[in-house]
Amino acid sequence: MDVRREIAQRALDLVGVPYKLGGRCPLAGLDCIGVVALALAGHIMPDEVPRDYTLRGEYLDRISAFFDRALFQNLGRESMESGDLLLCQTAPRQLHMAILTDCGVVHAHAGLRRVVLTPLPLPWPLVGRWRVLGE
């Protein structure tokens, strides 16, 4: 299985996990960054993903800088592929991360209090997208 499909499958395996702000453990709950951190396990250490965030607008530069490092390719408006990391704007000054799969996007939904799979098209504007380098 290639790297991006592996990331997408790991994200799909998290669907149904409880939501918890700042969560990094599937038993206790995950937030959107926790979903990304666990889906990327083996490619980054989950503790490398920033923890002190609010995902408000001022965080855009910081999260972009984290994913713009050598392991990730910052993508423009190219076609999206399963395993891509998506940064969306869910409300003014409110950012949210998700992972693209062949059947939609996986993300931690605060309102539903769990990790969910949402069908495409995305319900929010896309403000950033990264792809893990490698096969």
From TrEMBL:
UniProt entry tagged with the keyword Signal: no
GO molecular function: cysteine-type peptidase activity
Annotated GO biological process: proteolysis
Domain NlpC/P60 residue range list: 1-135
Entry keywords, A to Z: Hydrolase, Protease, Thiol protease
Keyword Disulfide bond found: no
Family in the record: Belongs to the peptidase C40 family.
Protein name: Peptidoglycan endopeptidase
Species this chain originates from: Sphingorhabdus profundilacus
